[in-house]
């Protein structure tokens, strides 16, 4: 056999083993684990909504909007950490690209503020 077929064979064996192992773990946890519901497990968690309510109830979308905006701006803020540590190594094209990114982030923040997406009513 050639080197490529040996590699493909070992990858296939590992793939089949991972599928077998995942099914075994799921089956084993289903057979051994216990389901004991108590008041703490079925109570409302972080979102503040009861888990077993009618799905047609009216709820505020503001919570989800604020959380999505937080995730977006928090993720974009993570890009500034490597930039700040390697700012002296960038050429002018890289520097101005990141300045443009910061301006777009600022414009998005101002827009979200202006339309009232950050206001909690």
Q: Could you explain the architecture of this structure?
A:
The structure is a single chain. This protein is mainly alpha-helical and 121 residues long. The protein has a domain of 63 residues. The chain contains 4 helices and no strands. The longest helix has 30 residues.
User: What form results from the Cα inertia axes?
Assistant: flat
β content, as a range? under 5%
Q: Specify the structural class.
A: mainly alpha
Q: Count the beta strands.
A: 0
Number of helices: 4
End-to-end separation in angstroms reads 69 Å
What is the element string, with H for helices and E for strands? HHHH
Oligomer: single chain
Low-confidence runs of at least 5 consecutive residues: none
CA gyration radius, whole angstroms: 25 Å
Measured as a percent range, the helix fraction is 55-70%
Mean pLDDT: 80
Largest sheet: none
Question: What attributes characterize this protein structure?
Answer:
121 residues; mainly alpha; 63% helix; 0% strand; flat
In a nutshell, what does this entry contain?
The chain has 121 residues and is mainly α.
Question: Which helices and strands, and how do they pair?
Answer:
Elements: H1 3-32, H2 62-78, H3 80-85, H4 92-114
């Amino acid at each position: 056999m050639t080197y490529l077929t040996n590699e493909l064979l070992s990858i296939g064996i590992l793939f089949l083993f991972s599928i077998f192992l995942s099914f075994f773990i799921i089956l084993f946890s289903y057979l051994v684990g216990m389901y004991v519901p108590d008041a703490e497990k079925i109570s409302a968690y972080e979102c503040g909504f009861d888990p077993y309510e009618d799905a047609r109830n009216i709820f505020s979308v503001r919570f989800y909007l604020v959380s999505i905006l937080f995730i977006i701006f928090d993720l974009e803020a993570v890009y500034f950490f490597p930039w700040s540590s390697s700012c002296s190594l960038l050429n002018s094209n890289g520097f101005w690209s990141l300045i443009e990114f910061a301006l777009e982030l600022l414009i998005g923040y101002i827009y979200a503020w202006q339309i009232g997406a950050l206001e909690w009513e």
